[in-house]
Structure formats: C-alpha cells, structure tokens
Amino acid sequence: xxxxxxxxxxxxxxxxxxxxxxxxxxxxxxxxxxxxxxxxxxxxxxxxxxxxxxxxxxxxxxxxxxxxxxxxxxxxxxxxxxxxxxxxxxxxxxxxxxxxxxxxxxxxxxxxxxxxxxxxxxxxxxxxxxxxxxxxxxxxxxxxxxxxxxxxxxxxxxxxxxxxxxxxxxxxxxxxxxxxxxxxxxxxxxxxxxxxxxxxxxxxxxxxxxxxxxxxxxxxxxxxxxxxxxxxxxxxxxxxxxxxxxxxxxxxxxxxxxxxxxxxxxxxxxxxxxxxxxxxxxxxxxxxxxxxxxxxxxxxxxxxxxxxxxxxxxxxxxxxxxxxxxxxxxxxxxxxxxxxxxxxxxxxxxxxxxxxxxx
Length: 359
Ligand SMILES: Nc1nc2c(ncn2[C@@H]2O[C@H](COP(=O)(O)OP(=O)(O)OP(=O)(O)O)[C@@H](O)[C@H]2O)c(=O)[nH]1
Hints:
Zinc chaperone that directly transfers zinc cofactor to target proteins, thereby activating them. Zinc is transferred from the CXCC motif in the GTPase domain to the zinc binding site in target proteins in a process requiring GTP hydrolysis. The protein is an alpha/beta fold.
C-alpha cells in the first residue's frame, strides 16, 4: 500500500512570520524533498517570490503559489488539482507544506485533505500557527475582526509558534504562553522562535493526526459500528468529529467562514513610476499605518540610486526596507491589507509623504 505523504499546514495572522518560517525550513530541509503551496490574500505573490529566493533553484523544493485567493472549502478549483499533481510526483516528494493566507482559516485545507480526492495520498502531519508575540502581548488581537480571525486560526492549530521573541524576557514569554493557552486550550505544543527559525524536527514529522478518511458526511441517527472508537478518543479536527458515526459537529469554525469571506478585509496594490527615497518611503508607510487601519504592506520598490529591488515589509507601523534578490522593477509596487482600509486615503497619504503619485 502506498504511504500517504505528510502535510504540514502553516497558518497565522497577517505578518506573523509564516513565509519566514517556510524559508527557514527550506534552508534546513537536509535531505527532505519538499513541495510548497503558498496561498496569499493580496493579488501579487510577494511571499511566493521570497520563498523561491530561499529555494534558489533547488530541484528538491517545488513551489506553487496562488495569489489573490483562499483555499476554500469545496468550491476551490486550484487546491485539489495542485495537490493531485504533487501526488502524481510522489516519488520525489517527502513532505508538503501549505502556507495559508494570513486571513484564511487552515480548516478548509485540513478538511480537503480528508476528501475522497486526496485522503489516499496525503495525511495531515500538523497544523502550525505562527504568532506575532509582541502584538499578542500588546493586546492587538483582542476583539473585532482581527481578534476573531486570530482566535479561529489558533483554535485549528496543533502547534503554536511564538515568533518575534527577541527582546522579550522570561516573564513576557510566560504571559504570552498563558494568553495562548487561555485563548486556545486545545493547542498541544508551544514553540518559541527567533526569526521563525524552528528546529526542523519540531516542525515536520510530528504525526499528530491519524489517517482518517471521512467524506463530508452529516450526522445520521444510526447506531455506531461495534468497532467505532468512542468520540472522546478521537483526534480533534476543528469541530469535525471523525468516527464511524459520520458525525459532523461544528466547532468554532464553521464552513460559513470559508464561503463568506468578511468583505471588510481589503487588499489592493498601489504602484508608482517615480523612483523612491528610502527614508521618505519608510516614514510615509509608518504615517499611513498610524493614520489608517493598515495591518500589512509588502512589495518591491525602486529607489533612486539602486539597481537592485528593495523589499518592503510592513506589519502595522513596523516597516523594514531591505535589499531584494532581483533587479529593481520599472514600477514600484506595494500590496496593502487592512480592515475597511481606504485605497484613496492610503494613496493620498503616500503621495503627500513621498512626493510621488501612487495609483
Ligand atoms: N523582528 C522580527 N521580525 C520578524 C521575525 N519573523 C519574521 N519577521 C518579519 O516580519 C515580517 C513579516 O514576515 P512574513 O514571514 O512575511 O509574515 P507572513 O506571516 O508570511 O505574512 P503574510 O503572508 O503577509 O500574512 C517580515 O518583515 C519578517 O522579516 C522575528 O522573529 N523577529
């Protein structure tokens, strides 16, 4: 019988460090042959480009990205075929990693792995949720759409990775751990990470899920099979009970969340032809994050006297510009993500602070 390929799902709120974690796992892959699926909320695949840079043409790392989308429950047209294509190359793949968008729940991918189309070829190894620990400690995930998304991602995770911990003392780490445990009591492991660097043995090959193949069945009031496991002994899979009962109980994350993305979440791209001044652009992005509900910005820009692209990474008002791996683009391009974020206001603020038109 063929062995199912283990799959690790990496979730976490916008900017938590999911892509950084994947990059670091690629660097530490040793002999493992990896296939990665990257799902971004924004319409431009910045994360895919960053992960490709880390893989640097390594033939044992296969990367596929779907920008501007969500791996959705049932009505997704790309996820299942992409996974089936990986299954067809199974002799060359030891482990699959799926990065969900920062605004997606991992549960859609988790459930699809158990569908008839994929269950014979794949097994969920673990779901990891990466957390921006300073933002957690600053109560930035309390309440509202952000807090709801954060809690739902955590609730689906087996392992929580407390990331961005440089500068935090023991007492702060304990507080962060307590907050995660309070918010997501079912999380099994907590890991600490600097720059999302995890020992690969703590990330891959955890085998936290049993092989189960359940069609998406709804509860029927029949007697259980004599051999069915008691419900209490089953592995939790985000509200879906898995047993011979074919029960289907909804927990925190119902299917609704995959079908009806909250329309308040906005993502748009702004571009400019004018070469930028790094310091002014940095100050402009900090000003936008302070004035508007901006949660994430990222992209590549052209600076006035640089031949290489400059990578912009902003998580709220924490903005960093660093040298990118490729040549400077003809037009600078930034993706902005936020809740009820106004494209017009962000463009106007950028124009005021940088002196160039952003459209
Ligand atoms: N200071 C600090 N920054 C970090 C750490 N880990 C990641 N970052 C930075 O946080 C920013 C966001 O990291 P990403 O890995 O792109 O986050 P992400 O979760 O993939 O983001 P989205 O896909 O947009 O949701 C980048 O600027 C990273 O360099 C860390 O441990 N410490």
